């Protein structure tokens, strides 16, 4: 009886260690990245109003879809809960585009998401916050010219 209990205990400990060490990339949400931004959009991507707001691209490199409800975006570390994501899902190995327009809009059933803040072409910071109030990713955005985006390269550097 003792050996069976010991076996089950070792199995549970092994599963916990495996999840902590190797399971991280497969756990939804924790590996989301702010992939690309444009802080002075003048003619690249239009929103549903025909305007050219700043934009942000979030990437999910994971193997599972992530529901972003409960996540936040902010351009101010002191206000991490500036803009809450609605119940929108980003599929595995997919991108989500949202506008940093200041319009604070989400139309259910449409992929037109607008934050309640804008980005600064003179440079700013951007934070992606998870439901546990932890910073999942951040990006220091340098000063950008109009229609020039800034983001990660294939090796995850900037």
Explain this structure.
This protein is an alpha+beta fold and 158 residues long. It contains 1 helix and 12 strands. Residues 6-27 have low confidence and may be disordered.
Q: Can I get a quick summary?
A:
Helices cover about 15% and strands about 30% of the residues.
Percent of residues in helices? 10-25%
Q: Which structural class fits the helix and strand makeup?
A: alpha+beta
- Trace the largest sheet across and list its strands: 7-2-1-12
On the 0 to 100 scale, the average pLDDT is 84
Strand content: 25-35%
Give Rg in angstroms: 19 Å
What overall form do the CA principal axes indicate?
globular
Question: What characterizes the major β-sheet?
Answer: 4 strands, antiparallel
Our count of helices gives: 1
